Amino acid sequence: MNYQQILNEIKSELSSIHYTGKVASYIPELAKIKPDKFGMHLHCINSGHYNFGDHIERFSIQSISKVFALTMAMSLLDDELFKRVDVEPSGDPFNSLVQLEYENGIPRNPFINAGALVISDILISLLKEPKKDFLNFIHEITGNTDIDINPKVFLSEKSYSYRNAALLNLMKSFGNIKNDIETVLDFYIYQCSIAMSCKELSTAFMIYANGGKRLFDNEQILSSRKVKRINAIMQTCGFYDEAGEFSYRVGLPGKSGVGGGIVAVHPGQYAVAVWSPPLNPKGNSELGMHALERLTTLTGLSIF
Ligand SMILES: NC(=O)CC[C@H](N)C(=O)O
């Protein structure tokens, strides 16, 4: 199959689509990103790299970091982790508070903000230097030690984090947050402000496509049992109240972020990342979803 030709076709098809999405503005620093940025990077297990556009430019990974945080927490703790966060789709927006009240402060899954905040709390309790260890984990799975946060995005989100503070306060009232709220918020926002390119993200997500092994040296990072579970959570919960739509249109486990990135994996075949900042009303990259839908249609390679 000529993957580069397929990517070129996706690029030309999408250049004529009139998008209606808006770049995220509730984190002021993200609103400065040009809406016409667009890149895609496909990393195939057997045949290497294919790409187009702004695929080596770094952008704010935002909620894509929730997959790395869950991976770290699952490598430190076993099933007891899931007493504090569930694995069910929420059907609600990423920053919603409503379900938490009914469900006694136990978030529906680790990929909505409430769930990721619980994971941050767990990591703070277990790690010596949470920020350093988190960044080191990303360096380990990408083999790239200069990946870092964007300090402007970090500070920008810190000054507008009222909803995440509300989620933390509510969960703390139910006893599901052990550390102090400022510390958890700070670490959570730190993770979200990491900047990576589509190329780097497709390398990082290769562990989920390759049975838990880094592709570049075959080192086992995560057991295949844990990979199965993380991919299942990405499939059912990776896109908030649009997880069903993504599954139906694209047919891959994946995760999005409000920076406009989406990463998806086809276990045994490839990891792919796409970046286009304008978001649809559910907070997922409008053109990113479209590009991935075309990829699985044109290659015939979805998991279904
Ligand atoms: N969906 C996202 O990417 C949200 C992440 C963002 N940092 C927030 O907490 O609001």
UniProtKB/TrEMBL annotation:
Pfam families found in the cross-reference section: Glutaminase
Entry's EC annotation: 3.5.1.2
Protein name: Glutaminase
Enzyme class of the recorded protein, top EC level: hydrolase
Gene Ontology BP, a term: glutamate biosynthetic process
Catalyzed reaction equations: L-glutamine + H2O = L-glutamate + NH4(+)
GO molecular function list: glutaminase activity
Family, as annotated: Belongs to the glutaminase family.
Subunit structure: Homotetramer.
Keyword Acetylation set for record: yes
Domain of life of the organism encoding this protein: Bacteria
Cleaved signal peptide residues: none
